[in-house]
Amino acid sequence: MASYPEVRLRRLRRSAPMRRQMRENRIDPARLVLPVFVTAAAEARPIPALPGHSQLPVGEAAALAKEAEAAGIGGVLLFGLPAAKDEAGTGAWDPEGPVPAALRAVAAAAPGLVRWADVCLCQYTSHGHCGVLAGETVDNDATLPLLSRAAVAYADAGADVVAPSDMMDGRVAALRRSLDGAGHHDVAICSYAAKFASAFYGPFRDAAGSAPAFGDRRSHQLDPANGREAQREIATDVDEGADLVMVKPAGPYLDVLAVARREAGVPVVAYQVSGEYAALHAAADRGWLDLDAAVTETLTGIVRAGADVVITYFAIEAARMAATRG
Ligand code: PBG
User: Fold this and answer.
1) Number of the ligand 1 atom closest to the C-alpha atom of 35
2) For residue 209, what are the CA distances in angstroms to 51, 121, 204, 249?
3) How far is the CA of 275 from the centre of ligand 1 (A)?
4) pLDDT for 326
5) What's the pTM?
6) Distance from Cα 203 to the centre of ligand 1, integer Å
7) In 3-state terms, what secondary structure has residue 95?
8) Which of 321, 69, 51 is nearest to 206 (CA)?
9) How far is CA 96 from CA 64, 100, 157, in A?
């Protein structure tokens, strides 16, 4: 059996060209999706905890999509900030709301992108919960038809992929039935299947104005300790007709991602969430990390673990780095 001194693993790492050629995984910009916050307000508003990102009016969101397309990115994922909120989140299916308007504008400005629309009520409800309430808990079955209306509204406006992030049971089947009933057989569903009740969503809730007014989301999002339950969520969503399944957040759940890639049979999407982005920026700001190197390392790790598609707030920078560094 060959071993040291004949075997020397350092041979393949000797030079930059060697390392570049032997690299097992690299970031392909086509696999990246950029989240974009679209506001009904007239003015853009920077998001302090997401440096470089803002809530954008429709026109500016379309301009950003164009920039993303030019950088080689595969798609954008739209979140909406409506003009008004109510108990049932009715703004989520307003055909003139920020997300449908942005879907139309992005289709015109950047036709080479895949258009993703997040489907959830938390940005649209006055209480910030992901569905309608029965007392202090989210009423699962009463929420399903509302999510379906939102998904159909986004499909009507040109979404290629609708992505339910609410974690209600049965929502993938409900969305599929409603989309097909409305003639949208070709619109794909990406289920946020393994979505954990994470501390890393903090900056997003500021960005989207979607923090719950009371309580938390632990009655529907997964317990971070539970890997097997995550695979069960993924399996039920695939059974219900999910075309793609997501693991979210990404970095702390690479084991879940790797198992999903082996077992799910559909493409697996990873979402590097707002807190993962904010943490890297905060450390880099203090001079404690090299941001570009850390971004490349985290995204490469997510790809190595098995992600087919990666949603990340670093999408544009990562695409540019991939183009210049190979
Ligand atoms: C809405 C939703 C959330 C995220 C995506 N869709 C927040 C939440 O569940 O509270 C988080 C994204 C991020 O942190 O970047 N349900």
Assistant:
1) 15
2) 16, 12, 8, 19
3) 10
4) 59
5) 0.97
6) 9
7) coil
8) 51
9) 20, 6, 9
Look at residue 206 in the predicted model and tell me its pLDDT.
87
Q: Please tell me the distance from the alpha carbon of residue 233 to that of residue 231, in angstroms, as a whole number.
A: 5
Whose tokens are 């969520």? That residue is: 233
Which ligand 1 atom lies nearest to the CA of residue 273?
Answer: 15
Q: Looking at the chain, how many residues does it have?
A: 326
Longest Cα–Cα distance in the chain: 71
> Which pLDDT belongs to residue 77?
98
Q: What is the pLDDT of residue 162?
A: 98
| Residue of 248, 281, 295, 306 marked active site | 248
The pLDDT score that the predictor gives to residue 209 is: 87
Measured distance CA(110)–CA(325) in Å, rounded? 25
Per-domain boundaries in the chain: 26-325
| C-alpha 175 – ligand 1 centre gap (Å) | 19
Mutate to test the pocket of ligand 1, among 210, 246, 253, 281 (most ligand atoms within 8 A of CB): 210
In the predicted model, residues of the chain with pLDDT beneath 50 are none
Pocket of ligand 1 (CB under 6 A): 118, 120, 122, 130, 165, 201, 204-205, 210, 217, 273-274
Q: How far apart are CA 38 and CA 49, in angstroms?
A: 17
Digit-coded pLDDT (tens) for 242-252: 999 999 999 99
Options 3.40.720.10, 3.90.180.10, 3.30.565.10, 3.20.20.70; CATH of 26-325: 3.20.20.70
- pLDDT for 1 equals 76
Catalytic site residue from 129, 184, 195, 217: 195
Say whether 66 is catalytic: no
